[in-house]
């Protein structure tokens, strides 16, 4: 993969991590966590670790995000402060 694309994916990973920490909406945080996991999948794929990328896509971006979103819909979305 071209190093410019790897660097762009790395910046998106960093931006998603910072945004997921700072966002006040729980649904937004769950979605940002899913995007973060998917970008990590692309980064693992760029490094040649196809098995780790597949596991990250299936568990990290798929199942974990579904569990987070299901938990958000069972609670209130916004914080009180």
Task: Give descriptors for this structure.
81 residues; mainly alpha; 0% strand
What does this protein structure show overall?
Helix 1 (3-22) runs antiparallel to helix 2 (26-46) and helix 2 (26-46) runs antiparallel to helix 3 (50-73). The protein is built from 3 helices and no strands. By secondary structure, the chain is an all-alpha fold. It is 80% helix and 0% strand. The longest helix is centred in the last third of the chain and has 24 residues, at 50-73. It has helices at 3-22, 26-46, 50-73. The radius of gyration is 14 Å and the shape is flat. The mean pLDDT is 86.
The average pLDDT value, as a whole number, equals 86
The rounded distance between the terminal residues' Cα atoms is 44 Å
Low-confidence stretches: none
Helix content: over 70%
């Amino acid at each position: 993969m071209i190093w410019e694309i790897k660097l762009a994916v790395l910046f998106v990973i960093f931006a998603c991590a910072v945004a997921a920490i700072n966002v006040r909406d729980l649904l937004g945080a769950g979605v940002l966590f899913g995007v973060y996991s998917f970008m990590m999948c692309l980064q693992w794929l760029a490094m040649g670790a196809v098995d780790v990328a597949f596991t990250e896509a299936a568990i990290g971006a798929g199942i974990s995000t579904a569990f987070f979103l299901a938990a958000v819909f069972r609670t209130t979305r916004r914080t009180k402060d």
